[in-house]
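Board notes, transcribed. Complex of a protein with iron/sulfur cluster.
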Amino acid sequence: MPLEIHRKTTRAIHVGRVQVGGGAPVSVQSMTNTSTEDVAATTDQICRLQLAGCEIVRVAVPDMAAARAIRSIKSNITIPLIADIHFDYRLAIAAAESGADGLRLNPGNIGGMKKVSEVVRCAKDRGLPIRIGVNAGSLEKDILKRYGGVTAEGMVESALRHVEMLRSCDFDQIKISLKASDVSRTVSAYRLLSEKTDLPLHVGVTEAGGLYPGIVKSALGIGMLLADGIGDTIRVSLTRDPGEEVRVGYEILKALAIRRHGPEIVSCPTCGRCKINLFDVAERVEKALITVSTPIKIAIMGCVVNGPGEAREADVGIAGGDGIGILFKKGKVIRKVPHEQLVEVLLEEVDRFSRNLKVP
Ligand code: SF4
């Protein structure tokens, strides 16, 4: 029996043209790591994220120069942009006035209800949602004291406290994130929160680390929650180029069959039967297809003996042989191809497949 995922019903909010929650597809986000006031560098990075499939991007807004830069950045990008604010409500208002599509701030940290209501009025006037982002490392002192440290229960209480502040200003365009750097607390906190609210949830494991630990923690944390039906938008956090975050985000969604995006590559681990440098072949194919969004299943196998059979479900695939490999589709051999031409021939087939998909 395939895994059946029943997504929890949440309220819909809109970040620019992207719906989050309310049954919309789980969206993939990332965050720039350029200095936001460097408009050229930030725009360039966002354009690369767009190509990788990023659907919502967040930028840090540490000062007024960053808030003002949003106007120029927005004029050169097509995906919605969220301004990440800490402590200073004036930055939130300036970012909104510069055209941000959403704000990420915690109302309990901006200096009282008068300031909260000013930010809310500004968000309402422009139809912007606000993400409350609770981090395990910055819980309120009274909560830490009551729960004896950072706990999932304390994180949830903190989030709901921020929610109440926004609701008291008659504002409900809210989504919530609850991030810890460990999988266990992150998953427990989101599970608990999901029982207590129908607001859409932004899911991720924060400060997950470099490539290997970051991918493992994110895949486990985000994956467990998505398998529970929890999560309306995701961000993988890696100490790497943010483009890698987007790539890993889609791999998680593809692995759970929640979304199809871009090629799904199946490649064998190789064994003593392998007659081709498969690591190199797989890497070249992956790199060449990095910006392709066509959902196509591709197999890259080490040998003709087992390759096509093991990859019967692939739309197209290649397998190595003794100097000569094969091209196959849905497990059927199409033709023999010399090893040095295998990658090129496979990429031509993927291109043909993509073009055929677009022709009704
Ligand atoms: Fe080994 Fe061939 Fe299977 Fe790859 S496809 S693991 S080379 S038997």
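The longest strand covers residues 332-338. The first helix runs from residue 39 to 52.
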